[in-house]
Write a structure and sequence with these properties.
The structure is a homodimer of 245-residue chains. Chain A is α/β, with parallel strands linked by helices. Chain A is built from nine helices and 15 strands. The longest helix of chain A is centred in the middle third of the chain and has 16 residues. The structure holds a DNA duplex (30 and 30 nucleotides).
Amino acid sequence: MGIPRLLVVDDDSEMRSMMTQFFQQNGYIALPASSENEIRSHLTSGRIDLILLDVMLGDENGVEICARLRREQDVPIILVSALSADHQRMAGYEVGADDYIAKPFNPQLLLARVRAVMQRARRTPSLAYRRRTRTFHFDGWVYDGKRDEVHSPEGYLVSLSQRESALLKVLLANPHIPLTRDEIAAALDVTGETDKPEAQGRAIDMLVGRLRSKIEANPKDPQMLRTERGVGYVFTADISVDEDA
Amino acid sequence: MGIPRLLVVDDDSEMRSMMTQFFQQNGYIALPASSENEIRSHLTSGRIDLILLDVMLGDENGVEICARLRREQDVPIILVSALSADHQRMAGYEVGADDYIAKPFNPQLLLARVRAVMQRARRTPSLAYRRRTRTFHFDGWVYDGKRDEVHSPEGYLVSLSQRESALLKVLLANPHIPLTRDEIAAALDVTGETDKPEAQGRAIDMLVGRLRSKIEANPKDPQMLRTERGVGYVFTADISVDEDA
DNA sequence: AGGTCAACGTAACATGGCGTAACAAAAGCG
DNA sequence: CGCTTTTGTTACGCCATGTTACGTTGACCT
């Protein structure tokens, strides 16, 4: 992944250079910025791993900027502010900030919190990343997520129906998490229509059964797509994801 | 994804129930726990989305627990503590906590920070979710913790029901510790619906009996899964664990 | 020792979830 | 329009799990 690249946004130039210097000494690449426009230009022109965003920026407002950025980007943001009242902090979290740090701060503590947020965010693919094609490998099977088909460990090509393929996608997105039939149904209904509350028969059971019959070595004793009695179904398999182009 | 499931770890029972209630009122499933063992049993027996971990837990230490858990699991952890000095906070971040919150805290602010951490963690892709496979050996038996089956010392394959397998997992996670029926039931109930205080029949007895009939050489005189009259059950056996790759 | 009683083991039964075969309805497709 | 493929429904039976009932065990008392 390389050296983490931080964007330090503050309207006080002294503060800005102090902070950038500090981070550079600690092994980061720190770039200064002082306005929303500068932030955006950095975001579009290069990789930014985390933004340290001052809340009071002359006539601009860090919280609002954060809100706007969040609507478009997934980049981690830590708000920094002299305003430390609870309702102000909450406003920050409200708009999607990953952390909120009061000024004056202990630089070492700031470092620690930057690391904490990045540690969590590093494993998170950015929105842009997520758009790429992902190929899933599980238990010898290969599913490219585009075509409605899977390759068996022995190399056979098994074709799935659209619904089966969609189900597989849902399962792969939620490994090791038991999903209720309702959750599965909701995930499959691309309609986006808010939850129709109740009442669907055994359609999911059948769907699961059919997928099992195609991808389980022994459908009677499923190893990957397992039943959680009284709950729903879980996909248990080690999955690895290729993010290749 | 379902309702977020939090684990509230505090040794003060009043604090614990206050917090769990609060989170439940805010739409979360909150499970109480008070020791590292309980945490582990929850982690092995069900899905936990975030752990709120008090730093001072009687004779245990939340920071150390956090460090240990981090080495094995990726579950988000927020440390909660009355110790708010910078070096104490940093120690928390140092061991991989996602956030560190000082007591007393504003509940709404706590909520906001829980949301912030989860929002980031929720997107954690399957990449990070390499299932840790641990193989348990006890008394000649082998249990891989993944399939619902055990290998007898003689090499026979004995298949367990899901419930039996889950029970075995709980027992293996708590060797030599007498577990009450309620504790076992709680550990088995992935339902997360917080403790319905009362009233469950002899289901656990039956479950224990059935497991015994499968893994005890002489079920009438159990050597591993013993009864603690008036208390519950204990698993006494030398267990060794393979953390295979 | 013998007696008492609660705790426990377990056989027998009850229940309800789930797999699935068979059928029916939709959706493609020429 | 028929024919095929996919998807949903119904019905039936199995079996995991829980409950009940009764016999046994063991701790405690006198």
